[in-house]
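Um, can you check?
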Amino acid sequence: MKLISRSLVLFHFIAIVATGPSSAQSGWFAQRPEQTREFLGAVAALDRQTAVAVSEGIVLRTSDGGSTWMIQWRGIAYYLTAVSFADTNTGCAVGLGILRTTDGGVTWTPQDAVGSGFLTGVSFGDASTATAVGYQGTILRTNDRGITWTRQASPTTDALWGVSFFDADIGIAVGEGGRILRTIDGGLTWSSVSSPTGNSLRQISMMDANTATAVGQFGTALRTTDGGATWAVQYTGTQNHLTGLSFVDASTGWATGSADTVLRTTDGGETWIRQRSGTKNCCASVSFVAADTGTGVGRDATILRTTDAGATWAQQYGGGPLPDFRGVWFVDPNIGTVVGTLGTIWWTTDAGATWTPQDSGTSNDLNAVQLLDAKTGTAVGNGGTILRTTDGGVTWKPQNSGTSRPIDAVSFVDADTGWASSGQLGGELLHTADGGATWTRQFVDPNARFSGVSFVDANTGIAVGVHNVPQTGLHSATIDGGATWTTGYSGAHWSYLNNVAFADSNTAVILGGNTVGGYAFIIRSIDRGRTWTSASIVGAPVRFLQAVSFGDANTGTAVSGGTILRTTDGGATWRYQTGPPRVSLTAVSFVNATTGIAVGPRGLILRTETGGD
């Protein structure tokens, strides 16, 4: 019986192609999932399309051959180290606790395993039975598909790193100091077997009732053909630690480990041939679902895939710095850009099906962006950064802002006329009338921080932020292009105003909150900022709101963290929407009442074509 089991070894340790929009998808869907930088230590391939990887605090899953990987579960307290599936639906992940899934890894439920300690390996023997092993020789057994677990007597107190069962009865566990344990009665009794090595054994794979391979430190590989009674040493040609192991039959398998070690055998380990993954981050664990198709995982959330038996590997996930997106702007349903940390700019012309990284020429964080059309846009960021493109992002040219302060928001009403604001104390409002060729300070308040600015025409605009005297939310409005500003205050003591957007030529909304344990609020003006009233948020109070965008005069969306709010009456009332779980959002852009994009940290891009409903 072929079961799917991979475990993490605890050593002291292509951009994603997004799924295109689909008219069949309602609500918000992850176009480019949030990524993680965590060490991925175990992976299990369920079939050619579906695989699950685990790390210290997350479970990742793909259902499209690795084109996208979604974070399905998060909980650092579990420090997940190993994962095993009985079939394409039922599986368990272990670490400082046990998780169970019955839907192929989409959802996970913690199981009662009191006193289990730190578990480092798990293996299903059949559809109902599984065994987990761990520190101090711990061995646990389940006979009900992972719902309940009981401790079995172990002949060792050495750490057990890996376990593999051929069926419900026959299994082998390996561990520290070359320790090998064997059972033929489902773990009712375990016996120690003489081992030809003192090196730590980190992984074990049983191919049939008699044949198994174990690998470990310093390139160690052992082979048994009598059910684990005796073991022979195999020559791997490496001194690197081997931590991952996957066989598709008794002859064909892969062993992986540190320093880009990928070894392949087609003769049961008599010979091992070196392959190259192309990255030093791979592979702590590997899982092959067929002789040609496998997945490897490792440091920096690296996920690699091969479809030619390991001859070449394509990176699907991780492996480098992951941008935190802070700004997004679309000019129509197809053309848009996102900006973020370390000068990141990505551009799409196909509704986000693919994203092209662009050269910003800066390593400063970019905080906001606005496009006027498919060619023209401005991005702003830290260090007084202002960038301009007139060729659809092919080139971004720096402009002289005249300040070294971080610039947090930008608003243009045409190709020439625009404003930018600084959220640092001593806040500045900058103005250009020549497309950014020159920027001048139009308004400076030494006690203000301007976090947002929005203009609806060349004369009418609103800037928002916080004022130190008094310590409360600040909104400043102009009706003469910024020549003069009228300042007002909103919110209780220690409140702030975070962002502002116009719904039409008269109506604007401001997002606010409180820094001392209060709740977020929304205020609304129907007279270009002269007077303000409180908007209604239907449902539970909101802690924080960060960004807002209107698709037309009636429909708008506000986001922050995992919160998404929607209005269909020009901002008078707002109601909650349901987005993908466990996401954090920082910016949003709508091009009409239904099509919008929201972004967040670690490369997250969400899209809706139904207004989020």
Remarks:
- The radius of gyration is 28 Å.
- Residues 6-24 have pLDDT under 50 and may be disordered.
- The chain has two domains: 82-317, 325-608.
